[in-house]
Structures are given as structure tokens and as C-alpha cells.
Hints:
The complex is a heterodimer. Chain A is built from 9 helices and 9 strands. In chain A, 35% of the residues lie in helices and 25% in strands. Chain A is globular. Chain A has a 6-stranded mixed beta sheet with strand order 5-6-7-3-8-9, with helices on both faces. Chain A has a 3-stranded antiparallel beta sheet with strand order 2-1-4, covered by helices on one side. In chain A, helix 3 packs across helix 4, helix 4 runs parallel beside helix 5 and helix 6 crosses helix 9. In chain B, helix 4 runs antiparallel to helix 5, helix 4 packs across helix 10 and helix 6 packs across helix 7. Chain B has 2 domains: 45 residues; 210 residues, Orthogonal Bundle (MetI-like fold). Chain B has 11 helices and no strands. Chains A and B meet through strand 5 and helix 2 of A and helix 8 and helix 9 of B.
Amino acid sequence: MTLVEVKNLQHLFFSNKDYTTALHDVNFTVQAGEFVSFIGPSGCGKSTLLSILAGLIEPTAGTITYHTADPKIGYMLQQDYLFPWKTIEENILLGLKIAKKDDPKIVHDLLHAFQLSHTAPLYPSQLSGGMRQRIALARTLAIDPSLLLLDEPFSALDFYSKLLLENFVVKTLQQFQKTAILVTHDIEEAIAMSDKIYLFSHRPGTLIQTFIIPEAIRALPPFDARNHPEFQPLFQHIWKELEAHGYENIT
Amino acid sequence: MDTKTLHEQFNAHQKRARTKIKILQLLLLVCLFITWEMTTYYRILDPLIFSSPTAVFQLFISKISDGSLLPHIGVTLLETVIGFLLGTLMGTLIAISLWSSTTFAKVMDPYLVVLNAMPKVAIGPMILVIFGPNMMAVLVMATLISVIISTIVIFSAFQQVNENYIKIMQLFQANKFQLFRHVILPASTPTIISTLKVNVGLSWVGVIVGEFLVSSQGLGYLILSGFQVFNFNTVFLALCIIIVLATIMYKGVEMLERALLKKFNIG
């Protein structure tokens, strides 16, 4: 079942002097329950795309169709952005409170499922970076979103926490049967976590290639997927494609 | 040598250093008073103008015992507290109204710049004429002097709230009021409290100038009336009391700041 359909999306940024085409002719669909990644260099318009999908920015042209009643979007950012003046419990409850559906049970169940019940009365500053990102995921899941947008959520973490959190996120999304779009510039992360990878070109951002991840890699948690014999060849393949399109050319 | 002894030595050393500073600070104060006393006693400085610590102290005792000093202190203290609370409160409210409408904020911008640049005490006589020679005029003066700068500082704090916090609230489809209540206000609380600290000082300026103008009661009135009859003992007495009270008030707000920051888990 198709959850989101994006057609002929175009977005321009205007300034006094001129304009930049951030996105040009972007077309794709995301199936319900699917985990899709967008990879591409910094500044290729990936985050703009997420903001448009989330409804924070109105695209210059094109349509986004959600095939679900009352689509709700969850968003995870590079950093957790937990509110430091609220306890963990209040942070997770906030979205529900604003929707006037505040039910502490949802929060307690989530914290329990994440094995973080003990953190409920604590403040974000008392938690480690990895724990805070898990809480941020819980806050996102609390409102029961139909689509989760992950904007490089692991980029601010140390390597060890990043690997653990990748596993945790994939497991959680499967458990809650969520559809997710991940934006990253980390090829390994994209292969290890996704079902499908879309490759973005540099400005103007447009989709230039699609990679379907083999079933064998998909079946494994991200950490084990990295050790699968098919992982490295696929990585090399995508790497070559990236080079062929002239970016990663930092020299 | 074990680590425990080393730690004790470290603590003892730190404590000695702190005590040394305290002693030097106290010594400086004593020196200042002794110099003041000596120079006026031996007429190096004219005691008629510079008074002397003993004369100020004697006046203090006599004015306390005949009950003529306390009402002045009470009035000034009350005006200052109300002035700085009103200044901060009104500054916050105006900042909220600016924040709630971008158009309003943009329209008001040049007016705020002008009002901020204008020396508020210059319109003191106008205030006196409008409100009459009473406590109201002093309060207006004290409030006016701090309200514009509070507005500007607090409004810019509202604008500097991390946009990702706002993004998260937008995704929750929060309305403007919810955004303000859950994010903008708590994120700006440290700034609001620090303006409170600045406003204590500004309110003292407003109150003293106000009392100069109204000239009926208060420590500012004491300074002015003392000056008019060339009684500089009174002037210095009022000045010393102002210094002590202003310092106590500043320290009080500083303690309040620490307590509030701890409560809101910020800072």
C-alpha cells in the first residue's frame, strides 16, 4: 500500500539578488512500513525535502499526497532537542498534551518498552547522548505518527552509540510498524538500515538513482548487516555511483 | 603522601587564598574610611563639603532615634522595588506583544531605538507636571527608565530561541500561545531574570532622580534638601544608605536568579 506519493516536486529559495533551485523534479513513493533512505552530499536539499514532507515549508511546485486519513508526521533531528526545562516524562507527553490527548499511560508504556522507565522524573541534562536520542524517538512515537522523518539523527553521536542506536531504531520501527524516511550522508548507515536508497544529486537536488537493498541484508539488524558478505560490494557500488556524479570531490 | 592528605592540603590552600582576598578587601574599606576621617579631621579636605565618617555616623544615630530617617528609607525602598518589578513586567509584556506580531515588531523597531537612545530623565519635568508631585511621578520615572531596555533585551531573547525547538512545536501543531508557554518563555527565563538584575540598578537611578524632582520625601529628597542648605552630613548619610540598600537588593536578586535557574533546570 502506498503511503506517500511525491510528484514533480520543485523548490526554490529566493534572495534579493537571485534564487537557488534546492529541489528539481523530485518524484518518488513510499510504501507503508517501508524504510527509505536519501543519501547525497551536504546542501543537496535533503533536509528541505523533509521540511516539505513535514508541511513546514510550502513547496514552490508539485504535490505530496498522503494516502491516509489525518497524516501525522514525526521528526527526529540531528540533535535530540529535548526541552531542557521539562522532565523526560513531560518532554514525551508534550505532543499529546498539545493534541489534547494527554494520557500518561502512553508515555509510561513507551518508556517501559525502551527500558528507560527510571528516567521519567529526570531532566535531559542528566542523560547521555544516546539515551537522549532514544527519548527523542519516544517523543516522536508518542503522537503515533504515520510517517517518521529522520534527519541524520545519528550524526551527533559517537560511533559506539550510533551503532547501538541504529539497531534500536530499526527494531523499534518494526515493532511499532512505522514507515520511515532517513536522510543521511553515511552510505553504510543507509545500507544497514533501509529497504530502499534514493541517491540525490548536488544542486539542484533531484533523485538520480534507486538502490533496492537485498532481502538478505534487510533481514538482519543494522549491526549484523554490516558483516553480511553482500554489504561491501553494495557499498562499493553506491560509492562508485557517487563518484561518477562528481561529488565527494572534496579536493 | 596519600591522596587524602594531598586533597586536604589543596582545600586548605584554597581556603587560605580566599581568606587572604577577604582580609584585603576589608582592609581597603577600613583604609578608605580612615583616610576620609583623617583628611577631613586635619582639614586637608573641607569637612563642610566632604563631611566625615564620625559626623555621618552621629547623624545616623540621632536621625534613627528621633525616627525621622526610617520613613525616607521606607519610601525609597518601596518605590525602587515597585519600579523595577513594573519595569521588568511591562518590558516582558511589551516584548510578548512584539513577538506575537512580526508586523507590529517591525513597525515599532525605529520607535524603540529612539526611545532607548533618549535619556529618560530628560522628560522628568514632564512626568512631574503630568502626574503631580507625588509618589506616582517617582514610580513612573523608575519604571520608564528600565522598561524600554527590558523590552529590547527580552524581545531579542524571544527571537534567539533555537529554531529547532520551534520546529518541533510546529510539528506538534502547537498554536502560538502553546509555543510561547512551553518553549519561548522557559527558554528566555534566564534573560528575563538577568534584566531583573540590571533593572535594580536602573530603578535606583529613576527613583533618586524622581525624588530630586518631586522633592517631598525619600533618600533622593534628603540628598537634595541637604545640598540646598549645605548640610553635607545629610547628603553623605543618604548616599551611604543608598549604596548599602542597592547592594543588598542586587545580591537578593542574584540569589533569586540562582534559585529560579535551579528550579527551571536551566543555566
